Amino acid sequence: MAPFQPSSNILSSKVGLFIDGPNLRSTSKALGFDIDFKRLLSQFESLGSIARAFYYTIISEDQANDSIRPLVDWLDYNGYTVITKTGKDFLDANGRRQMRGNTHIELAVDAMAHASQFDEMVLFSGDGSFRTLVEAVQRRGVRVTVVSTMSTQPPMLADELRRQADVFIDLASLRGRLGRGV
After folding, report:
1. What average pLDDT score do residues 37-46 get?
2. Contact at 8 Å (CB) between 129 and 102?
3. Cα-based distances in Å from 81 to 31, 65, 162, 167, 171
4. What percent of the chain has pLDDT over 90?
């Protein structure tokens, strides 16, 4: 399969990947596939040199039994900067264990702190709360690509985030390039 082709020819640019882990996981699950993070790095290298690849996620207070731990460890050893935050466990109304917390502030602070190092930022999230961050990074001269999906019902992408981005890529269109075992 040919490498991912960006909408503009900026192959000499420096690229920063910012992955909202829980959001990307939910989006790929809704689309029926798992992300192969090794393939993700290689596909997005076609945009230019990957300066940094950040992965943000919540981990359980009981890290030993956290199902995300193997992925976090793999990412940490394979080119990603992993930022974790301990979530608070609680039981929902149906008695199921849930975790509360997010890493949006950490992602936004890192994106602003590193914006001068990138020509292109790729944000893997559909959360509308990132619209203001995208606008602020763009004011610093950075092009922003948002990766999420509009192919689910309801869409996993906030309309205001899609409109603010310079480029939107539907994750569904990348299934064959990023899907594990695809």
Report:
1. 91
2. no
3. 26, 22, 25, 24, 22
4. 70
Q: What length is written for the chain?
A: 182
User: How far, in Å, CA of 108 to CA of 103, rounded?
Assistant: 9
Tally: H helices and E strands in the chain: 7, 8
| Nearest residue to 36 via CA among 94, 95, 92, 78 | 78
How many CB atoms within 10 Å of residue 89? 13
Tokens standing for residue 64: 């030993």
pTM: 0.88
Which percentage of the chain shows pLDDT scores above 70?
A: 88
Nearest to 54 by CA among 41, 68, 43, 64: 41
- Select from 166, 157, 102, 152 the least CA-distant residue to 126: 157
Enumerate domains of the chain plus CATH numbers.
13-178 (3.40.50.1010)
- Asked if the model's pLDDT at residue 2 lies above 70, the reply is no
